[in-house]
Amino acid sequence: MQVGELGTPALSKEERLAIEKFFLAKGLPLDRAVTFADVTLPERYSDIRTRSEVYDFKTELVPGFSLAIPVVSANMESVTGLELSVALECEGGLAFPPQTLPVGERVELIERIARADSAFIENPLTARPEWTLNKAKELMAEYGVKSLIVTDEKKKVVGIFTKRDWFYENDDKTLVGDLMTKKVITAERGVNFEKAGEILRKNKIEKLPLVGKQGGLAGLITANGLFYKYRHPRATRDDMGRFVRTGSIGVGKSFSDTHLKEVESQVKAGISLLLVDTARAFSVNTEEAVKRIKKEFPALPLVVGNVSTAEGAKFLFETGADIVKVGQGPGFACRTRAIGVGVPQLSAVAECAVIASCYGKTVIADGGMKSPGDAAKALIAGARAVMLGNMLVRAQESAAPMFVDEDGRPVKNYVGSASFAAQMARLERGDLSHLRRPEGVTKVVPVTGTVEEIVNDLMRGLSSTMAYLGVRNLKELREHGRFISQTSAGYVEGVKKG
Phi, psi (5° rounding) for residue 141? Predict the structure, then answer.
């Protein structure tokens, strides 16, 4: 291994040649860095008769873990919360929780995602017969559910409390035991999904409590979750019919035992991937963090970022990253380039993707994409997925509160993670020691639809791009897509009319 500055791994001759070969094959310039508007995609002969033939957007992030669509949410407090996480994974994408949230809130978010529309629930929410309707309503409101399993003091199932039992009751002092459905059909813990489905169908019920050997409540299977694939075939779910959960962690000035405990608490909550998030991932801080996490949780796939150079990507892969997040400064609410650092996004993604291929790893393009065409270009440059903040914050389900502007339009505040507003919020919570020079801004953006509408529009645009290029899946798109440079006038000609 060649060593560069401060002992970090330098690019080998073979890696530099691989980058040059890839750039030449893709039509990317070697003498300057470019971004999305600097290039366009020449059409290719296509045997695709209609865009509807293009619907395969599957992408593999790590061996054995794929997404139905190449879209992940930006781990920003104004973007990703419970509603957006569920809505995006329902469409086949993936959501990352903000690492700036206190760990308790992150874990709560992870646990609530696990319960949402889940086929199997390990620890169902329960009520006691002596509870008042008001107490039960408070618990259901806290977790966003409409039913509870009723158990006695020995945790044995004595009833089920569904919306039809309490919806028309006006007296909140009424006891749960007087309202609940007492006849409950159960199954033994360990029943397979096929048998559970038969029980649910035969009895025309929606909830199937599971009982253990001692007769106590030991889980829950829901019809809504079990048959979810029929309504949402692209949804990002695990083999237990739950939405996939991810975690996040910062690196701090140094990676402490407290940081490691935060990782452990998220692992216990069932995460499948962990995002190690920092604006300066090509650093000793990140190296310490990744090595400690990998030592304690060697099987946990790590997404690490951000970097914008091949050297930075190689450093992270050598350190232990499984996926590298690429992008410094291209985001709509990011202003890192104002301090003079960062590489135009398309070139950054391309050279980092070449290094990823050398290690059998992958990269995610984070930021700078304003259209389906930009997303397509990032994927052609080698990204396995695109991380979106600007597009998704405009969704009704994004975490930012919605309000009405002076023209009566629904809008939201898109708060950059390194903005003054974001830093003040963290300072008030006590998880930031001092204000830094803002490298982000807050923007007021219009609400343009639901996550489903925004994602479907993006995928329709991507299918159109693929139809013009004569490709039917993302592997073919990466292999056959190429760029040609365009002037600023050429770009304006294509996007601005009148």
Answer: -65, -40
Q: Are 193 and 239 in contact (CB under 8 A)?
A: no
Give residue 447's identity as a one-letter amino acid code.
Answer: V
Q: Please tell me the distance from the alpha carbon of residue 26 to that of residue 458, in angstroms, as a whole number.
A: 23
**Which two three-digit tokens encode residue 90?**
């329902």
Q: What local confidence, expressed as pLDDT, does residue 3 receive? A: 60
The rounded distance, in Å, linking the Cα atoms of 241 and 236 is 9
- Give the lowest-confidence range in 66-75, 316-325, 423-432, 439-448: 423-432
Phi, psi of 275 (to 5 degrees): -95, 120
| Domains detected in the chain | 5-116+243-386+451-495 (3.20.20.70), 120-230 (3.10.580.10)
DSSP-based three-state secondary structure for 188 = strand
**What DSSP letter does each residue of 359-424 carry, written as one string?**
HT-EEEEES---SHHHHHHHHHTT-SEEEESHHHHTBTTSSSPEEE-TTS-EEEEEE-TTSHHHHH
pLDDT band at 420 (very low <50, low <70, confident <90, very high): very low
Residue 386, beta-bridge partner list: 71, 365
Rounded Cα distance between 80 and 78, Å, is 6
> Rounded to two decimals, what is the model's pTM?
0.88
Amino acid code (one letter) for 277: D
Tens of pLDDT, residues 335-350: 777 888 889 999 999 9
Report the alpha-carbon distance of residue 298 to residue 320 in Å, rounded.
9
Residue 72 CB partners (closer than 8 Å, separation 6+): 93, 94, 95, 96, 364, 385, 386, 387, 388
Q: What is the pLDDT of residue 442?
A: 83
Higher pLDDT, residue 260 or 421: 260
Residues annotated catalytic, as ranges: 334, 429
Instruction: List CB contacts of 251: < 8 A, sequence separation 6 or more.
Output: 259, 276, 277, 278, 283, 285, 286, 288, 289
Distance, CA of 478 to CA of 162 (rounded, Å): 49
